[in-house]
Fold these 2 entries.
Entry 1:
Amino acid sequence: GTQQGPPPRRKGNPRLLFMGLRRCGKSSVQKVVFQKLPPADTLYLEATNKIEKASMQSFMNFESAEIPTQLPVLSPEYEHATVFTNIGAVIWIIDSQDEYLTSISELLRVAVFLAENYPRANLEVFIHKTDGLSEEYKYDTFREVRQRVQDELSDFGYGDRAVSYYQTSIFDHSIFEAMSKVIMKLLPQLPAMETLLTKLCSTCRIQKAYLFDTVSKIYIATDTSPTFLKDYEVCSDYVDVIVDIKQLYGWLDAPKDAPKDGSQPQNEDPELESEGTQPKIEGVQPKSEASPSKSGSSQPKSAPDTNMLGESMVTFDKGGDNYMYAREISNSLSLICLMGQGSGPDKRKLIEYNVDILHDALLQVFKV
Amino acid sequence: MERGKRQKQRKVLLMGRSGAGKSSMRSIVFSHHNAKDVRRLGATVDVEHSNIRFMGNLMLNLWDCGGQDSFVESYLTNQRSHVFTHVAVLIFVFDVSSRDAASDMLSFASTIRALHEFSPNSKIFVLIHKMDLVPADQKTAVFQEKSDGIRATCEEEEFLPEQVGFWATSIWDQSLYRAWTQVIYFLVPNAGTIENMLRKLADLLDASELILYERTTCLVVTHISRGRGKKNPFTDRFERLTSILKTHKHSMARHTGTMVSEVSFTELLVKSGKFMFFITRLTENTNLAVVMPNDEGAFNAARVNVSLAKGEFAYLDIIEKKGKEAQRT
Ligand SMILES: Nc1nc2c(ncn2[C@@H]2O[C@H](COP(=O)(O)OP(=O)(O)OP(=O)(O)O)[C@@H](O)[C@H]2O)c(=O)[nH]1
Ligand SMILES: Nc1nc2c(ncn2[C@@H]2O[C@H](COP(=O)(O)OP(=O)(O)O)[C@@H](O)[C@H]2O)c(=O)[nH]1
Ligand SMILES: [Mg+2]
């Protein structure tokens, strides 16, 4: 593209490896998260026989690969550096609806292998397919898996290795929340972003603030208050509302003669256009063939005029105390806030002012 | 009194063979389920009635008629006049994946024969349903072929071509809302008056589009497009908006742990680049979506102006309230 100024991104793109037993859900997770495959369509996925890569261009370049179960990547004969060099995290997926003891012993092999060969890679365990399970069963399985893995790792002498556990399903937001947490850990800018968001929350009485990668709906930072799946869900759905409405009316921003029949309205992010692997932005509903596929707003990238950046608000009560607030930080980053008591209409100016400051600070963070 | 009541209540029959998808459709459009939930629905026994109030005096009186053969038999015989009199619209649902298209057509023919007997001026909306099961490259051809066959049957039963409309639908996308929006538009008694009022409002706000929709179903009642708004390449934007707003309702209901029917927002605002989009309450049952230039001053004026216009629009609802009170006394 014809881009001026440094792009607010890049610096160690997180590389992820998906591993686990057969049919545990590796392909499904990779395809749902990075390629926006509708979860129900995963029923038709075939077994993976070779290393399958996926990537997504957005705020940053997410890269991942699925290791087929039968590939002996841990065996001494295998040239493991081809797979593991520069890896940020290994995500081990356990099918919680299936017998999982075999999976745990395989997981331990991986954990030991990583500790010995790639000690800087994070190990993340997804206790997966939790949809349709009772809360109790979910909780028990989660505890049991964690306990066993920790005990045996200690026995191997690696009790101090940090392993994180998540309950996930592709049929709800939990997979996106887990992926967010996995990716966040790999961003060197995280502490700075967290500090900025926490400060914003306390100054403006914001209950919870997330910084979203707008396209993937993975959040790359949040304030330090406790996170709840419920809050992430509602914010993530709100991003959909905004993106969808912008898509329907954003073409108004295009030059007068742009959206003539045949010609596509302009793309928002020149970076997106140049790469082949970008996902469909609309994941929720199949859209009619007649519609152009992208939003048409074309914001001047070099000079971020804050007035031109998108902003949205949805209010749930007459008093105006109960609302959500959204603000675009760049073409691919959005700030979404759940507002708390005492952030009502009289505080709007203060909030806008502070969000402007945050906006500039974040751009600084990514310039480094 | 009685006559007045009947004019406002519009009877809509929802018919089609068992398993065609009628109740799924109804529960998505009117009862706040989403496509995943409806797989658990059982077969409808006899007729399930529901009333839905729209703007401008419209009370939709929906008859969801169970499609098992024994029920259909009874609609056509002992219940014949009860079911088929005073019908404004018949929505007939065909399952595009049905293995028994010949019987479907026979059932349809005897249904519209009864309809012609008791409500000859009614309108028929034929829905060719479950289109998601047809491969994308065959959709147009399949739809064309099915509707041609059905059209011929309608003519045999003496319905005029303009009395019959055809829609391809699926519960898995917004095509369902597209068809239902057309039904509503056909039924709203004073659409012309409402549109005139909206057009004036649009001029006043310098809006490129105004969309009036019913608050609980999020179905679009009508819309006005002006200037560049007329050139919007997204011709399916109204049913997409329904879908966006419905999804948002579900999301909010999950978040707050309340019923979908109880969630609503007071205002939604999206500003981006040159446009501004906002939604606000217009009447008891309707919301208004406004698309206008992104300008803080114009927006504040627009809010005030919409607020002032509420009185005028409320008038359309008030007639009904008065009528209702009169009926009670
Ligand atoms: N219920 C449920 N099923 C899931 C979930 N994720 C994946 N599945 C199903 O699990 C089955 C297997 O998924 P795959 O992604 O093909 O499994 P895999 O691990 O890649 O299998 P291999 O190709 O043999 O490596 C599919 O039928 C998926 O639909 C989930 O979150 N919940
Ligand atoms: N694939 C698909 N299935 C549908 C669709 N609409 C309904 N169904 C399914 O068809 C079955 C029968 O639907 P139902 O509404 O109970 O039929 P009814 O007997 O006419 O009321 C259910 O399993 C629905 O989930 C659709 O658009 N696509
Ligand atoms: Mg039924």
Note: The CA atoms of residues 249 and 260 of chain B lie 6 Å apart.
Entry 2:
Amino acid sequence: MRAYHRDRITATALLAFAIVWCVVVWQTIPVGSPGSVGPRAFPLGLGILLAVLSGLLLVRAQVRKRIETAADEADDTPDDSTSMSGAHEGTYLRMVFSVFAVIVAYGFLMEKIGFVLATLVTIPAMMMLVLGIRDPLRIAGMAFGMTFGCWLVFGKLLGAYLPPGTWLSLF
Amino acid sequence: MDFLLNALATSFTPVSLVAVVAGTFIGLVFGSIPGLTFTVALALVLPVTFSLESTPAIALLLGTYIGGMTGGSVSAILLGIPGTPSAAATVLDGYQMTRRGKAALALGTAVIVSTVGGLISLLVMIVSVDFVARMALRFGPAEIFALVLFGLSTICGLSEKSLLRGMIAGVIGLMIMTMGLDEIDGVQRLTFGTITLQQGVNLLVAMIALFAVPHIIEAFVQYYRGEEQPVRAADVNVELPRWKDLRENFWLMIRCALMGTGIGAIPGTGGPIAAFLAYAHARRSSKDSIPLGKGSLAGVVAPETANNAVTGGTMIPLLALGIPGDPATAIVLSGLLIHGLVPGPMLFLEHPDTIYSVYIVIILSYIAVLAIQLFGIRLFVQLLRVPAHMLAVAITVMCGFGAFAVRNSVFDVYTMGILGVLAYALMRARIPLTPIILGLVLGPTLEREFRTAYILSEGDPMIYVSSVPAVIFLALAALVFAMPALKMLRKPKNREA
């Protein structure tokens, strides 16, 4: 993906977000009492500012596209960057989704089965499913080492609250 | 005197001393491993400070900050890869010394001059911070608004290559902080009727998400694509520099320490700029028999003194005005806020013992840096060999627990996941993340002071330009924002889209 193409997507997404933000702010936050800067002013002003800045980024992307297209026309060397970056984008998306899923699952498990069991389950799952590690010794060492280390440091030494679990509780 | 004795008593408790050593160690580890910045370390230790008293919490945070700033030199010298951006200038001569078989001397010199630089900057800080705070005591809401706006102008310095993208990031940070219950009118803003969002997006959760989650994703991507670099660092010891070497570089050390402190005191600048400016100064003034760039000792002394001197410099606007100069000090600021310590002039009146504790903790941190690096350098070499993806697995667990520990709420873990993914998407779109942090930290104060000034003036907008300090800060902010824009207009061919 070319830089200007990515900028165009970014700017469009931000512009859309800014417009939705402004509409929601306008509809849900009261303007406040007359003679004062009410609670709506800042969020609305910031939404408008983001829309303006996103618009500027969009204009820049268009200008850059025109410059790069002109340069491409002058240079007839084949460009194979698009296919490569497509494969890379796939890896990025996969990892983004995996990390997000791991974090959400870890949070859910912490609440349901407690910190100790959740950590013991999440680390092997992450190592096997996300990273494709198959070495059982490495997985067990990491899972037990991290769980024990965190339990000792956070729970015992620092006295932090470790969620006990609503479904099942070990400690 | 009572305040000093009280500060000494709280700083020398076993918990505080352990916090200093643990923080310094964590900072050194994160700083020394390329790709793992000490800002990530600070974001991860921040939730731990909840369970601590204020002084041990400050000790943990400042120890991590100071350890991290120093740790970057280890990989810079041994591998030629800076552990932190601040250590980039150290690579130039430090790695050359390693290639000439003088790695031990380079490491020893880096440790000594880092400590000297840090302690000189502390002295300058002690002398100046009180004066700055006294001046700031006269500020009303309009002046504080102007000052915070000036603080936000440091977005320009943190915008990496594009001011436009930096401003977008800063605005996003400010927008996030408007969510929740409005401080002045008590109105719910963008909470969508949920109770959990009434408190807004928690600053600490946002920091963990912004700093740690993109790092985890990036480490996994590199592993998956087979781009992770195995680290092969040879075993080394630390060799202290000879007295003669230190004496020859004494004035260079002093100059670079003052330079680093001065640069650190300007928000938005920080360690990398100080280190490179000091290196350039050493290149001009060095009388070393070995030229700079070829493994000269002065090429290690200058950047390492300057980048550690930045730590004292950044504390001046942080403590006296409540303005963080970089992401690391922004996290330190939030750590202080958690414990009810609001940096700014009032801190000097209400909690003078805390100010003394900060001074003592900085001294202790540098002593810990010196001791840990002198005796534990072999451990750091071993840590450099731990694969990045395994560290990322450990960091994921710490992030999950850290986000939960903020309010004992799973909702915060989910928020961290969502914000982390959004942060990564922004990073991929080349939107810098550090201005978002600045927006998050300074946003509430900016809005509160603006609205308070407006109410006090009964709707007269001239209140914002009614005093000399306010006009100066507003003019400085305008100047800082205008400079990069003017620079871009002058160089239309080279500008970055």
Note: Chain B has one domain: 2-490.
